[in-house]
Design brief:
There is one protein chain. About 35% of the residues lie in helices and about 15% in strands. By secondary structure, it is of the alpha/beta class. It has a single domain, classed as 3-Layer(aba) Sandwich (Rossmann fold), CATH 3.40.50. A 5-stranded parallel beta sheet has the order 1-7-6-2-3. Strands 4-5 form a two-stranded antiparallel sheet. Helix 3 links the parallel strand 2 and strand 3. Helix 1 crosses helix 2. The protein is globular, with a radius of gyration of 16 Å. The two termini are about 20 Å apart.
Length: about 200
C-alpha cells in the first residue's frame, strides 16, 4: 500500500498499533491502520483482482509468528468490513504450524490451513494482508500454506514495505532516484508500469 522508509511516521503507526506499551496509543493507531486499508481498497480493488486472476474470494491476515491469538490486524476495529470487497474475511483459515518462521527465509511448513477448513481454501483466490514487509518470509510462508491447501491464487497486500536506506544501499538508491516524498505515493505496484520483468 505504501513504501515505509525508516525512520518515518508510517512505521510508527504500523508498529504502534500492535506494540506500543501505551493502550491509548494503540487505540489511536488502529483507526489509522483501518483508514489506510480503506483508502487502498477503494482505489485498488481492481488491481488486486487483476493480480489474482479475477475477483478474490477470501481475505485474511498473515498470522503472527510469535504472538498468541493470531494476527494483530484482527484487533483493528472495522478492518473486516474495510476488506469486504476483497472477499469473505476469514482469519481462521490460517494457523501457525510446527516449523519456525525464519526472519529472512520463508518456511513451507510454518503455517497451515486447519483440516476442517481445507474446502474453504480449495479453488479460491485469496488475499493475504500483512502490516509490514521486510524480507517477505512470513507472507510467503503463509501463501505457500494456502497454495498447498488448493488455493488457485494468493495475492499478498502489505500496508508498508519497509525500506532501510541506512542499511541497504539499494534502498537508499531507490529513494534517491524517486524522491523520499514519493515514497508515500498512492500508486500501487500494479499501477506502476515498468519495462522490467516481474518473473
Amino acid at each position: 500500500m505504501r513504501l515505509c522508509p525508516l525512520p518515518g511516521p508510517l512505521y510508527t503507526v504500523l508498529m504502534g498499533y500492535k506494540e506500543s506499551p501505551v493502550r491509548e496509543a494503540r487505540r489511536r493507531f488502529g483507526p489509522l491502520v483501518r483508514a489506510l486499508v480503506e483508502d487502498f481498497v477503494a482505489s485498488h480493488a481492481r488491481c488486486v483482482a487483476a493480480a489474482a486472476g479475477g475477483p478474490s474470494d477470501v481475505a485474511l491476515p498473515v498470522p503472527s509468528s510469535a504472538r498468541p491469538g493470531g494476527s494483530p490486524l484482527c484487533g483493528v476495529e472495522g478492518l473486516a468490513s474495510a476488506c469486504a470487497c476483497l472477499g469473505l474475511w476469514m482469519p481462521e483459515l490460517l494457523a501457525r504450524a510446527e516449523a519456525p518462521v525464519g526472519h529472512m527465509r520463508p518456511a513451507r511448513r510454518a503455517f497451515e490451513v486447519p483440516a476442517a477448513l481445507t474446502a474453504a481454501a480449495a479453488g479460491r483466490r485469496a488475499v493475504l494482508l500483512d502490516d509490514t514487509y521486510v524480507s517477505g518470509a512470513r507472507a510467503q510462508s503463509a501463501a505457500a500454506a494456502l497454495r498447498r491447501a488448493g488455493a488457485c491464487s494468493v495475492v499478498i497486500v502489505v500496508l508498508g514495505r519497509v525500506l532501510r536506506p541506512d542499511r541497504a544501499a539499494g534502498h537508499a538508491a531507490f529513494l534517491d532516484r524517486h524522491g523520499r516524498a514519493s515514497a508515500s505515493a498512492a500508486a500501487c505496484c500494479r499501477c506502476v508500469q515498468t519495462g522490467a520483468s516481474t518473473e
